[in-house]
Amino acid sequence: MRKVKADPKGVLEGPHFMDGDHALAEGALAAGCRFFAGYPITPSTETAERFAERCPEAGGLFIQMEDEIASIAALIGGAWGGQKVMTVTSGPGFSLMMENLGLACMTETPMVIANVQRGGPSTGLPTLTAQQEMMQARWGSHGDYRVIALVPDSPQECFDLAIEAFNLSETYRVPVLIMTDETVGHMHEKVVIPPADKIEVVERNWYTGPKGEYKPYKFGDKNYMPGPMVKVGDGHRFHITGLVHDERGYPQATVEAGKINITHIIEKIDSNRDKIVRFEADQLDDAEVVVVSYGITSRIAIKAVMDARKQGIKTGNFRMITAWPFPEKQIREIASKVKAIVVPEINYGQMVMEVERLAAGKCKVVSVNSTGGAVHDPKEILAAIKEARS
Amino acid sequence: MMEVRFSGFGGQGIVRCALITGKAISLYDDKFATMTQSFGPEARGGACSSQLVVSETRVLYPYVTVPGVLVALSQEAYNKYEPELGNGGILIVEQDLVKQKPDTGRVQIFPVPATRFAEELGNRLFANLVVIGFFAAVTKCVTPDAVKKALPELVPGRFLKANIQAFDKGYAFGNDMLAERASPKEAVA
To answer: Domain locations in chain B?
Structure first.
């Protein structure tokens, strides 16, 4: 894994007053993304617009595809064509992407997919906020696989995590999802873009060996780290497929080959969980109740935690920055020390199931759920904190 | 912390008001500002609102709860949002476009003929900058310097000068009104 400084052509250095959607596009450009294929959908369209407007100056290409199925298919082609690639969508488009998300996982193709979540199911609440695809992000494609999913809480973090998403994607050769939401996507705040020489980006791991000997996959490496990539058109003969395959990429329809292949795509994430997982924890030491949250909801949760502290309730805050892989160790540890964990989210209770699984009965787990469309009232979370403690 | 709602009809530059003010505050006044806007199938002529939460520390809850300042540039916006304005809050109204209820003293009312001033400067599209100037004077929420620094990327270059004039007009009008209210006798004399 080689880290380099960002290409200044993609870096719009300086302070800006920017919304989260635009910040995603700026983060992608700063990270070296030069190919974007997408289909417009509320509330994510602004990311595509921004990328389309800005990418000619950075030397990139934007294609509006016929739909989201084609968009993610174009990313697979773009990545094997040598580019860092991205798309953005929302609920209905995210569903359409699920089949090829599996193909990207199976072919170990790096890419970044941002989902600016709106209310669902189906066309749902197009203009209103939600966090209803957190489980789809994890389980939406068929078969056993792993992805990485990040959850920004602000326009600044949309920028920062877009860079992080590309870096993780290149490091692990895996699709990385940025699971933001309408509120963060459309909210304007200060976004500081550092100079290019202060931004570290992970270069693609390029194959440098002799032609004719390239293998697109490497299984069984220490920590399951993936092998290098080549560009289509550079004269290497290789094959990639959605079928279970060997290191040459050729289909191998056997139990043994499946064991090696599938173990690899799962373990390259699971066994590196500690290196991938990011979170923010505050006031956990004496806490009786901890609020576990992510994305925009974590900001409302912090307000509720502050209000609870003012009322003398020992409350802590745990904000997931990485939703997948899930911060298992951290939640298990919290559950062993507190009376209760409160999980607010703008869905009918999704990530709370992971919290319950890891708490394993050691503490109470309270879901503060909603049917979507709006952020929580801090009072709802405060009431849950009080109830959970009693 | 201050919660501000700008409201009116689509095309009056309501969203731009919050964008300019928010940018000015968060980039040049060294405070935190979070801006959100009504987002839906609205178009020109329809009801429109934008929200700004301003704070000395990081804004957590991004939306207005009980606004301390309401800017209402249309009758519909006034009717809809005046009741939610907090007691003692500042109400800025476009005096030629809004027919107000009798003043009960619940809120502090600051009327401004923003559209008329803008037309005098050559284009009614400058009305939102008159409003920002007036808003800056009356609320002290944002400094004139910061607004002027924030303007260049947010208004077309050829209209920058006129927009600054519109801001200055609103700012002076607001300061005159404050001075008059502080010592009404002198003003009469």
So the answer is: 2-188
CATH assignment of B2-188, given 3.40.920.10, 3.30.70.100, 3.40.50.300, 3.40.50.720?
3.40.920.10
Mutation target among B16, B34, B55, B155 for the A interface, most CBs of A within 10 A: B34
Could you tell me the maximum CA-CA distance found in chain A, to the nearest angstrom? 69
| Chain B residues close to A300, C-beta within 8 Å | 60-61
Contacts with A319 from chain B: Cβ below 8 Å: none
The answer to whether B60 contacts A302, with C-beta atoms less than 8 Å apart, is: yes
Q: Which domains are seen in chain A, by residue range?
A: 2-203 (3.40.50.970), 222-274 (no CATH), 281-389 (3.40.50.920)
Tens of pLDDT, residue by residue over A369-380, are: 999 999 999 999
Cβ <8 Å between B62 and A186: no
- Token pair of A59 as six digits: 């030397």
Q: A251-305 pLDDT, tens per residue?
A: 999 999 999 999 999 999 999 999 999 999 999 999 999 999 999 999 999 999 9
Burial class (CB in 10 A: 0-12, 13-18, 19+), B75: middle
Burial of A285 (0-12, 13-18, 19+ CB in 10 A): exposed
Minimal-distance CA residue of chain B relative to A17: B23
Q: Is the pTM of this model over 0.95?
A: yes
